[in-house]
Design brief:
Blueprint lengths: L1 E3 L4 E3 L16 E9 L28 E10 L11 E10 L2 H18 L10 H20 L11 H38 L4 H44 L4 H9 L1
Antiparallel strand pairs: 1-2, 3-5, 4-5
Helix pairs in contact: 1-2, 1-3, 2-3, 3-4
Pfam family, one: Neur_chan_memb
Membrane topology: Multi-pass membrane protein
Organism: Heterodera schachtii
Length: 256
């Protein structure tokens, strides 16, 4: 509600704000409210701010956003036939991302880490190696879409986060499938070695079994070493570049 002096006119407004959610949930928003005359030029109606123009009867509390700064300035609206007096009230808002760290980031990291237990599972528990990444992937999809507060036609920072986290889970599933394929191949070769017609043939097949075992052991060890390193590199890139990316370039890529 605005109060216009000296006539003490009170105006109730329902303004809106065109927000850019490219960096959601680490975004800052800038919203403006403009007051101008439609028919009267500045010589007839001159709007001026008082020394203390912005007063609130009570503390304003927003669900996610907090007001960083408010400023009252003069403005000039383009496209008007008659130049008129104009006042602008600018709000600078900052989203509090602590809730998203607790509700989105930490649970998704824990779910992804749970999918990394596959290389540590004994090789005779084949179902666990396959079921675990699939379950985690379905959990991440539900976690991303279950309580989606912002729906946009472009990727937000949180969307990029979940895309990469799901990609890590899919890679874990692919690694498990590759290891299981090697294990089944090794078992088939070992079964063939037991039926070998000669000692020479049996020795060749046993050597092949050992070679296959070394392959999937090496693949598991490589996954154990590279997965944390790759995630830490992505986390650093996400914090430094994704959540602080330029909004104009984000929208230009979307429009293009």
């Amino acid at each position: 509600m605005f109060k216009l002096c000296p006539s003490n006119v009170r105006i109730t407004l329902l303004p809106d704000c065109q927000m850019n959610f490219c960096n959601f949930p680490h975004d800052s928003q800038r919203c403006g409210l403009y007051i101008s005359s439609i028919a009267h030029p500045k010589t007839m109606l001159d709007l001026q701010w008082e020394p203390r123009p912005i007063l609130f009867p009570r503390k304003i509390s927003l669900p996610d956003l907090r007001i960083k700064r408010m400023a009252g300035t003069n403005c000039q609206l383009p496209g008007k036939l008659i130049p008129s007096s104009c006042l602008a009230l600018v709000f600078e808002l900052k989203r509090d991302s602590a809730r998203y760290v607790a509700e989105r980031y930490m649970p998704s990291i824990l779910a992804m880490l749970f999918s990394w237990v596959a290389p540590y599972v004994p090789y005779n528990y084949e179902e666990v190696r396959i079921i675990t990444p699939i379950t985690v992937l379905l959990t991440l999809v539900q976690m991303e879409k279950g309580n989606q507060e912002v729906i946009t036609s472009y990727l937000t920072s949180l969307d990029i986060w979940f895309v990469v986290i799901k990609a890590f889970t899919v890679l874990s599933l692919i690694e498990s499938l590759a290891v299981m394929a090697y294990i089944k191949k090794g078992r088939a070769v070992e079964s063939e070695a037991q039926r070998a017609p000669s000692e020479y043939r049996r020795d060749l097949l046993q050597a092949e079994v050992k070679r296959i075992e070394r392959l999937y052991h090496r693949l598991d060890h490589l996954t154990m070493a590279l997965s944390p390193v790759a995630f830490l590199l992505f986390l650093g890139y996400y914090v430094q570049f994704v959540v602080q990316r330029d909004l104009s370039s984000c929208m230009e890529r979307h429009v293009g």
